[in-house]
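Thread title: Can someone regenerate the structure for this chain?

I was given the following input by a collaborator and told the matching structure tokens would be attached. They weren't. Posting the sequence so someone can regenerate them.
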Amino acid sequence: MASSLVGLDPVSPVIYALPRGGVPVALEIARALHAPLDLILVRKIGAPGVPEVALGAIVDGASPETVINEDVRRLSRADDVYLQHAKQRELAELERRRALYLGNRAQVEPTGHTAIIVDDGLATGATAKAALIAAKSRGAAKVILAIPVAPAETLVEMRQHADMVVCLHPATSFQGVGSFYQDFHQLTDEETIGLLRQGWAEVDQAAAASMKRQIAVPPLGLVGDLSMPADPRGIILFAHGSGSSRLSPRNIAVAESLNAQGFATLLLDLLTVNEARDRRNVFDIPLLAERLLEAVIWIGAEPDIADLPLGLFGASTGAGAAMLAAAGLRDRVAAVVSRGGRPDLAAERLAEVEAPTLFIVGGGDQQVLELNRKALAALICEKMLKIVPNATHLFEEPGALEVVTDMASAWFQHYLALPASRQTPVPAEISPTQKIPTVAVVRAAAEPLPSLDDPNFATAFDRFAAARVVLLGEASHGTSEFYQARAAITRRLIEQHGFTLVAVEADWPDAATIDRYIRQRPHQPTNTPPFSRFPIWMWRNKDVDTFVSFLRDHNTNQPPATKVGFFGLDLYNMTASIAAVLTYLDRVDPQAAQVARARYACLSPWSRQPAAYGRASLTEGYGLCERPVTRILVDLLQKEFQYAKRDGAEFFDAMQNAHLVADAERYYRSMYYGAHESWNQRDQHMFNTLQNILAWAGSTSKAIVWAHNSHIGDARFTDMGMERDELNIGQLCRQAYGQNAALIGFGTHTGTVAAASEWDAPMEIKTVRPSRPDSYEALFHDVGTDRFLLDLRVGQHNDLRRAMADPRLERYIGVVYRPETERWSHYSYASLSNQYDAFVWFDKTSAVTPLSTRVASGEDQTYPFGL
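Best answer:
Regenerated them for you:
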């Protein structure tokens, strides 16, 4: 369809999709024509008493267009009052849908453009007809209807209202649009919104001179402007001064100069609009420093900037906040610069600053200069005071701000050193002399796999059945083939090889709901439905739903000792774990529950924002709640015999929830010191949880782990371990179990993936860019086989192991995917044959299909997903 329209070379095209089915077709057309993508929303107006009969239609827009079938109106005797009420009702629905799909995005008016109306097919053509009439009446220079399929007789009428109709399949025998498609599932609202966002992002990116985006830092949604040069060498967080904001022209000038030097910059409003109205907040240095800490946490969660060295730039009172934040963040901050600032406002905390610090002060700003000299004396880190001769406080003199910029730039260039992984030169293309022999080695060792629905797909993995732990990875959290493959392999290991434990990268209390369901144990109500936190699609998808059904069916005829269990390894849902511990103790030991409730109350102020607990502990210099939450775990363990004899499974669940709370408390404290410390805390918890599960299940138990490649591939042979001192559950399993741990990675070349553009943003169906030529993925794509298995174990294919030992880039897509910054966001160097025992390849993959999150009433609420 896109190719057909490109050949027409339409003048100034705008693509209007009829949602929801028309959106994926329209997206590809918009890409091919490099044209804006919008929606045209149409609602049918039903005839009185027979609403299925179209009396007319209303089309949204600045001036909504109404199209009436006068013959139907005359026969149905619809009067003006009926029409007015019907129009108002449908117009309200149109406005609701536009807000849902488009938010505040302005509609593209068709005036003077070629309006291309797109749907996935036509039956009667009523809505398309109304859209065509509306586009013409609004001044479109030309109107084209583009549809893949429609009945031939419907097209005759459409040509009366369109300047041109492009239809790939004008059908003489028509049994519905869906009969012409292999996949005609109804798009969800989330998929529709994701596709639209994807199209808009691509157009916006092409139009932008540089990579800039406005961001919002949780929990208050503080607004910031992030500027990203290509291949940034570091990121500098600005703290503006009193009476200023992220729009400060002086800070913007400094930031633009730093961008030109290769640094990313984040200019952030440290106060909300309401807070800024109270002048006292401008001088609340601890409050401003807390906001900088929140921004540092946000930076650490962004895949394209998380690993960059961090600098702080403060002006006026913002300099005091920057120094206070640097004191808490220790070596997380690589350098600090103050411009005409008040670093003295950090008071006694100045002595705790470890980062090299530069104070820049105007020679004519005598009072501030004296305060900076005193602050400099309090610092024990590497430090320097630079004076700009004759400059006053705001550096308004000709050339003064330029001098400041040069000084700051030189300081950051010296102290913000890139990680070695980013310094590694990346060839634009692997030469044929390198490429062909390696491809031949891989092709010779690659074992083709049958399709996923073939029962023989999983038999290739019988070779790993002797392991105590089989770890199954994924290259993204939103790819259907990875879920289907893991389900097939897991099913085989359960049915044929005695595996009874499935442990996944999910929170313990959420996974426990599935465990009770598949073991047919009593349901325990929770305050919130399981798996309702971002990213919902990671576990609420059709592939997991099918797998859970298998587990329940399998367990139905199994004795209790051989029923398969489903467990969560992750530690995020601290609030739910606290509730689970208290519920258990209320039932078995009310007095202990009362004590535990008082101890957990320490965490109550931060129950909705656990990251804020880390900030508070950072400010105080110790773990505020470490002792009370650890004491609860110790008390449980001391009473293990007394509690476990009632119901061992329920005791084990409570104990693991208590472990989660204790480890989460440490996790939220560690996240301010850098991504590697919080990562290590998290993966150590995952491994400890797996160890506890295996110990509880007995010495002959065997487990299957589902987690991302970044967790299950041995971190010692990736940039994670070699450059950032990060460990993971795969490494820890190898160290503990040796050859009794099998680490299996997964990868793909291209296709689609379910992911978000920002943390906590809506799910989108994104196109996975074809892999880089200097990556393992490109090498496997060149093998030319759709699906295959590489056995990387010692003694299997020595030539392959040698070829795969040479470090190359490997792609990792998490719940956030940013194709525009893919090299730094999603690629990292690794030695594949040392990282994994095997690797599973799918050349082209597709996104998972999310499940609805609507909770139904009645008995079905016991189902793990609450559908």
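The first helix runs from residue 2 to 8.
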